[in-house]
Amino acid sequence: MLIIVESPIKAKKIQSILKVKAMSTVGHFKDLPADQIGVDLTTYEPTFIYHEKKAHLPKELRSAARGETVMLAGDPDREGYAISCHIYEEVKEVAKECLRMEIFEVTEKGLREALAKAVPFERTNSGLYNAFLGRRIGDRLVGYILSPIASKTLRSSYSVGRVQSPAVRLVVDREREIRAFVSSPYWMLDIQLDKEGTLFLARHIQGKFTSRADAQLIVDAVTAETHALAEKVDKKEVKQNPKPPFTTVDLQAAAAARLKYTPEQTMKLAQALFDHGLITYHRTDSVRMDEAFIAEIREFLTQSLGSNYFPPQPHKHISKNSQAEAHEGIRPTHMHSLADVSTITAKEGLTPAHARLYEMIFKRAIASQMAAARYDSTVMIFSVAGQHFKAAGRILTFDGFLKVYAELDEEKDKKGEEEQLQLLPPVAVGELVPKVKELLDEKKTKPPGRFTLGSLVKELERLEIGRPSTYAAITKNIVDRGYIKEEKKRVVPLLSGETLIDFLRDKHAWVIDYELTRKMENFLDLVVENKETWQRFCRGVHNKMGFSVPPARTAGGGPSDGQLKYAADLAKRGGVVIPEETLKSGRELSQWIERIVKGTVEARKKIKKSDVNPQ
Question: Are 263 and 339 in the same domain?
Answer without folding.
Answer: yes
